[in-house]
Design a protein that fits this description.
CATH superfamily of one domain: P-loop containing nucleotide triphosphate hydrolases
Strand content: 15-25%
CATH architecture of one domain: 3-Layer(aba) Sandwich
Radius of gyration: 18 Å
CATH topology of one domain: Rossmann fold
GO molecular function: ATP binding; ATP hydrolysis activity
Shape: globular
Family: Belongs to the ABC transporter superfamily.
Keywords: ATP-binding, Nucleotide-binding, Transport
CATH class of one domain: Alpha Beta
Order of helices and strands: EEEHEHEHHHEHEHEEHH
InterPro entries: AAA+_ATPase, ABC_transporter-like_ATP-bd, P-loop_NTPase
Bound molecules: adenosine-5'-triphosphate
Protein name: ABC transporter
Largest sheet: 6 strands, mixed
Length: about 270
């Protein structure tokens, strides 16, 4: 791995589903030591990008790499990147402990790590309770536990803030910050712009399967309509300006006035 390959990177990523949706020409980097927020409206392609990065979906063109290597070629993928995408993925009749134990076996993680990671996500007291009795916030913490289980270098979290109460959000913010400060990349998708503004260092905004903007958070926010605006107002301004004209879907052609950027905002 060269220094420039570090982190989680998509370059020219294109994936078209049978129905025509997908992503086109998506390039971004979630750099080591940074928390990167992947933002976008419903259907903008966030989950598709994360799935391709994690080798859960194929793609048509471009590359998606972790420290310079595609997920499928990583020698120790669960140690390279921790992730848990599917919020409905845990069997409700199982306990948090049994789910994590079976993940530990699959990832060749020592069984003792299960109790430890339950403590890290503050679920130690409910490890033996059925997941069907968990609140959404508890399920979110369990997803984070699954992602952290193998002590991965990088983290990919799909909508990790959904369902967390204010204390849970503060906890998650601290967790991703510590992970980045330890040198990992954290790539998280979210709809929650106010929370994102308090959580991320870098922002990638997707719309209609394409990158509308990517920049460090302060750069993006200062580029807002009134200057020094909120991420929310910048987001809405960008999405409005970048909205596909009627009859155009994920067509890949840059449109006049569309603030398509790499590392800044025009
Ligand atoms: N398995 C699939 N088969 C067909 N089309 C799909 C599939 N998954 C996603 N799409 C389409 O690809 C586009 C991007 O979807 P994706 O789920 O990546 O967006 P998203 O930004 O994660 O949305 P949300 O915020 O609603 O989860 C959408 O048009 C969606 O309908």
């Amino acid at each position: 791995m060269s220094r420039s390959d570090g982190g989680i990177r998509c370059h020219g990523l294109t994936k078209t589903y049978a129905g025509g949706g997908g992503v086109r020409g998506v390039s971004f980097t979630a750099a080591p030591g940074r928390v990167t927020g992947l933002l976008g409206p419903n259907g903008s392609g966030k989950t598709t990008c994360l799935k391709v990065v994690l080798g859960l979906a194929g793609h048509d063109e471009g590359t998606a790499t972790i420290d310079g290597t595609p997920y499928s070629q990583l020698t120790s993928p669960t140690r390279a990147v921790g992730a848990c995408l599917d919020v409905a993925g845990f069997p409700p009749q199982h306990t948090a402990t049994t789910v994590l134990r079976s993940l530990a076996v699959r990832s060749r993680v020592p069984a003792e790590r299960v109790e430890e990671v339950l403590g890290e996500v503050e679920l130690a007291d409910v490890g033996r309770r059925r997941i069907g009795q968990f609140s959404l916030g508890m399920v979110q913490r369990l997803r984070v536990a699954a992602a952290l289980l193998a002590r991965p270098h990088h983290l990919v979290l799909d909508e990790p803030l959904n369902g967390l109460d204010p204390m849970g959000i503060q906890w998650l913010r601290g967790l991703v910050r510590r992970h980045a400060e330890a040198g990992g990349s954290v790539l998280l998708s979210t709809h929650l712009l106010t929370e994102a503004q308090l959580t991320v260092d870098d922002v990638v905004i997707l719309h209609g399967g394409q990158v509308l903007a990517q920049a460090p958070l302060p750069t993006l926010v200062e580029s807002g309509p009134m200057g020094a605006a909120s991420l929310e107002s910048v987001f809405f301004a960008l999405v409005e300006r970048g909205a596909a004209p009627p009859g155009r879907g994920v067509d890949g052609a840059p449109r006049p006035g569309t603030p398509m950027t790499n590392g800044g905002v025009r």
